Amino acid sequence: EQFSASLKTKSFFGKFQNGTLYYDAVAKKMRNDNAPVSLEDWIGVPGLYVQSNIFTPTGSYWITNDVCRQQDGKFNDMWGWVKYSKYYGTTQIGDVECDTWKLFTSKANLTLYNNGDSPILYVTEVFGGLPGMTPQHYAIEQFFVNLTIGKPADKDIELPADCTEKPLTCEPETQRIVTMDHYIAHPPQHFNITNQDTADILGDTVFTCSDVKRNNTKNDHYGVISHYRISLDTTYGQYALCNGYPGVCMGREYFYVGREASMGVKENGGQCANNTEIGTWYSFPAAGKCQSREDLDAYKCTWFIEERVKTINLTCPFDTHQMLAACNDEPQEGQGIFDRASKIFAQSFASDDVADGGCPDLGGPTKF
Predict the structure, then answer these.
(1) Are 145 and 122 a contacting pair, CB within 8 Å?
(2) What is the structure's pLDDT at 38?
């Protein structure tokens, strides 16, 4: 019921990652800290990606690079399913002989390999992705190492204060309302950016490069990239992670436009920072959408679409103009990240002429 353990986890990204699990079924609390991941090794972006998941009796929180977002769910007994499982004999895991317990359901298959009271390996096979995402099938393997039985220390399992405090907003720019260029990859039939995430040119280069390299664009059914001109209030809030159509967002800001550095690699995710060298991501909450530009200028809302400028096939920059190969370039001295790839991305929208490095406009809605 109460223990701490080092974890070696193989996630749906296919790589093993070290971490620590603190578990207290009596207090109905659990915290899973993952060891920092090198973004340089993962997707070619400098910096570290640090994440934790915390479950309490009343809620669930996901912390990435010190930014705390609330997510669906709450504490659930990690081993509550075992009493409904079937015993499958013994299995050798490394040099340990383990009892094997399995439970099969429509949403997940669960397997526990234990030696006495000690879990050795826990395998979760999931059918379905994050809320709002295209269904996926993946497995997570968790190896338990250095198990310590007993109540975890309070400091290791308590919810950080900033997870319950109201998220901070940035001081607005001198010109509070600005009009900006935004880019978003999406399925060809979905142009509504409410509860969706966009980016500037470098930010969307970072996103699309990592997404295409991991073959995730097929899972999300991304087929096109659109360029929008959007006017917004620069009182930026916490960036929300949005997926699906209609969008479902994970975050704690519901009115102001969310903002962070690509992959949230900076302090406070880069919410209020100058992210020129890494690119910037934005989120557009439904409650902040303006029905008119006049409403935005009166600060009754926080964002307004001026126009959809252009929509192109994702294959045009990535295949025709070889952006995928450029995504794998090693930065040269004096160059920024994804230097050649971001130039290919920008030129795809700057021209309609394929011979000039451009991509033709596929058209799309004009009213939002």
Answers:
(1) no
(2) 74
CA distances (Å), origin 204, targets 87, 185, 262: 48, 8, 8
Structure tokens at 138: 């993946």
| CB contact at 8 A, 82 and 92 | no
Q: What percent of the residues of the chain are helix, what percent strand, and what percent coil, each to the nearest 5? A: 20, 40, 40
Please give the structure tokens belonging to residue 54: 């915390």
Give the count of alpha carbons within 13 A of 299, CB side only: 5
pLDDT of residue 355: 96
Bridge-based pairing state of the strands 241-243 and 248-250? antiparallel
- Span 52-76, pLDDT tens digits: 999 999 999 999 888 999 888 899 9
Element spanning 54, H or E: strand 51-55
CA distance 248 to 254: 12
The rounded average pLDDT for each run of 10 residues, N- to C-terminus, in the chain (368 residues) is 90 74 95 81 71 92 90 91 96 95 92 93 77 58 92 91 90 95 95 96 94 72 93 97 90 95 90 94 97 96 97 96 89 77 96 96 88
- Asked if 122 and 109 count as a contact pair (C-beta separation under 8 A), the reply is no
- By CB atoms closer than 10 A (0-12, 13-18, 19+), residue 269 is buried
Phi-psi region of 315 (alpha: psi -120 to 50; beta: other; left: phi over 0): alpha
CA distance 232 to 237: 12
